[in-house]
């Protein structure tokens, strides 16, 4: 009799557990797959683009979102092709994502494509002046995100260039004339130039051909230097810019670490990968029901000074100990 009772208990437990299996399976099936669109301003074979995508994915994973499990991430790579960016923005919106992450100038095309899908931006300068948001504290609309530079800090680039290359008395500010923020950045650089004894002038370039003409022409005069400000054109043509600067022995400062990792002399600017990790937090909050209009635009929290010691030696420059002491990273 005892063995009969034990057998019945075993069967009841087994059958009860079996009855629960379909319920668990149905619960998993009911978990909604969320969708995130991403419009980058680099090419899909750019190592920096891969690093940014990885930083975003890691940030999302730490918050419980795994690509292919409970979220689908659709990437598009617009580079500096306006037509391609416009087409990709429309494609992403047509996929009906829960939120879109846009980089830099891509926000222009995304806003044209939708005023309802939530958009989080990264690496944008002056989002209020460019009409992306109503204010930093209260963005309004469907857009919020993370800025990359305050105009006032642009003068720091010229100061650092003068420190590492004291003989520089004339400097070109390499910028894309189609990006309005370049005007404000140049103005800030121009304001500190007299105190540093440097004459500055804009070098407006939009593509590889213009870069190949402009940099050698400027470098013909002695004691010249180069300030490369942020923008998709410079980022996508950075290998060419770095090569020309080396060929013409032109000390140059750049806005991000990855330029120096690729052979540039010195950089000062925000940790760009950190912006993608932080953006994952806003994407998470939007997926959980918050509105972009209620999420304030945030400024960078981490800046880094990076020096390529090998490039400095090739240019015949001695890096001052004071500059080495303040550097976050020295690439040998």
Write up what this structure looks like:
- The chain contains 13 helices and 12 strands.
- Helix content is 45%, strand content 19%.
- It has helices spanning 2-30, 47-62, 82-94, 106-113, 155-164, 181-196, 208-218, 232-236, 238-247, 257-261, 272-287, 309-314, 321-326, and strands at 34-40, 71-77, 99-103, 119-124, 143-147, 170-175, 199-204, 224-228, 252-254, 266-270, 303-308, 329-331.
- The radius of gyration is 25 Å and the shape is elongated.
- The protein folds into 2 domains: 34-149 and 272-301, Response regulator (Rossmann fold, 3-Layer(aba) Sandwich); 151-270 and 304-331, Response regulator (Rossmann fold, 3-Layer(aba) Sandwich), CATH 3.40.50.
- The longest helix is centred in the first third of the chain and has 29 residues, at 2-30.
- Strand 1 (34-40), helix 2 and strand 2 (71-77) form a beta-alpha-beta unit.
- It is an alpha/beta fold and 332 residues long.
């Amino acid at each position: 009799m005892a063995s009969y009772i034990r057998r019945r208990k075993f069967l009841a437990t087994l059958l009860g557990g079996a009855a629960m299996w379909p319920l668990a399976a149905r619960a998993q099936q009911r978990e909604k797959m969320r969708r995130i669109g991403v419009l980058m301003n680099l090419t899909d074979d750019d190592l920096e683009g891969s690093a940014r995508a990885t930083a975003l994915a890691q940030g999302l994973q730490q918050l419980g979102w795994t690509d292919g499990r409970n979220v689908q991430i659709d990437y598009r790579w617009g580079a500096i092709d306006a037509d391609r960016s416009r087409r990709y923005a429309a494609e992403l919106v047509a996929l009906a994502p829960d939120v879109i992450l846009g980089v830099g100038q891509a926000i222009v095309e995304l806003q044209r494509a939708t005023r309802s899908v939530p958009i989080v931006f990264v690496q944008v300068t002056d989002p209020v002046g460019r009409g992306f948001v109503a204010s930093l504290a209260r963005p309004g609309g469907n857009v919020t995100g993370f800025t990359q530079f305050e105009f006032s800090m642009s003068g720091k680039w010229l100061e650092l260039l003068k420190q590492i290359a004291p003989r520089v008395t004339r400097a070109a500010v390499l910028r894309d004339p189609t990006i309005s923020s370049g005007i404000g950045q140049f103005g800030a650089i121009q304001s500190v130039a007299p105190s540093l004894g440097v004459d500055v002038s804009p070098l407006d370039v939009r593509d590889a051909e213009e870069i190949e003409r402009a940099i050698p022409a400027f470098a013909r005069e002695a004691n010249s230097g180069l300030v490369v400000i942020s923008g998709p054109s410079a980022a996508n043509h950075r290998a060419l810019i770095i090569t020309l600067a080396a060929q013409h022995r032109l000390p140059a400062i750049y806005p991000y670490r990855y330029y120096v990792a690729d052979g540039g002399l010195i950089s000062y600017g925000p940790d760009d990968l950190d912006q993608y990790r932080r953006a994952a937090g806003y994407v998470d909050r939007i997926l959980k029901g918050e509105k972009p209009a209620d999420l304030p635009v945030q400024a960078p929290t981490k800046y880094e000074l990076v020096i390529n010691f090998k490039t400095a030696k090739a240019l015949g420059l001695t890096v001052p100990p004071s500059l080495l002491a303040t550097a976050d990273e020295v690439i040998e």
